[in-house]
């Protein structure tokens, strides 16, 4: 009968844990993870901040139209001319939805990014119809909505998992 020693089975060298130069046991090597692109992280932070600004803008313009009917002048030759009060309520509700979507994106969930993209698209469309009232500001908001859509579309699920620890 062969006697086994702590060296393991016959003919195999004993397994020794790795040690660092100072004699302490080193942790086992971890598989390398792909790096998270800083542009992706910065892009989602940018998107959330801009969505919060856009949502706040929609809320303020909506409240201005609801409180003071004379704040915006009605346009005579505008095909999509609604009551200023209706525009105010549309702006107010969409602003609350955009603001809620901005805060939900930070959870790192895929559905929140999809909602953010849809809400930014609807915000750009709504602002397009609001162009006769404030043309320069409307073009600026549409441009920011396009940047939000781009930054949310380039932010991947794997980055969200690495940053926020969300399940894959």
Walk me through this protein's architecture.
With 168 residues, the protein is mostly helical. α1 packs antiparallel against α2. It is elongated and about 85 Å long. The two termini are 52 Å apart. The relative contact order is 0.14. The mean pLDDT is 75.
Short description:
The chain is an all-alpha fold.
Shape: elongated
Can you write the helix and strand succession as a string?
Answer: HHHHH
Binned, the helix content reads 55-70%
Count of individual helical segments:
5
This entry's quaternary arrangement is single chain
Distance from N terminus to C terminus (CA atoms, Å) equals 52 Å
Lay out the secondary structure:
Elements: H1 38-67, H2 84-105, H3 110-129, H4 135-154, H5 157-164
Features:
168 residues
């Amino acid at each position: 009968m062969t006697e086994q020693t702590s060296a393991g089975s016959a003919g195999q060298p004993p397994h020794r844990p790795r040690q660092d130069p100072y004699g302490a046991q080193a942790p086992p090597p971890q598989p390398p993870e792909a790096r998270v692109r800083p542009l992706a992280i910065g892009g989602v932070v940018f998107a959330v901040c801009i969505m919060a600004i856009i949502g706040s803008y929609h809320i303020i313009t909506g409240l201005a139209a609801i409180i003071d009917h004379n704040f915006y002048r009605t346009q005579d030759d505008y095909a999509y001319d609604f009551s200023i009060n209706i525009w105010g309520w549309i702006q107010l509700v969409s602003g609350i939805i955009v603001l809620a979507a901005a805060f939900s994106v930070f959870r790192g969930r895929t559905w929140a990014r999809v909602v953010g993209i849809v809400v930014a698209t609807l915000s750009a469309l709504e602002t397009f119809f609001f162009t006769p009232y404030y043309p320069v500001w409307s073009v600026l908001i549409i441009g920011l909505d396009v940047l939000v859509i781009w930054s949310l579309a380039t932010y991947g699920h794997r980055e969200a998992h690495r940053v926020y620890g969300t399940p894959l």
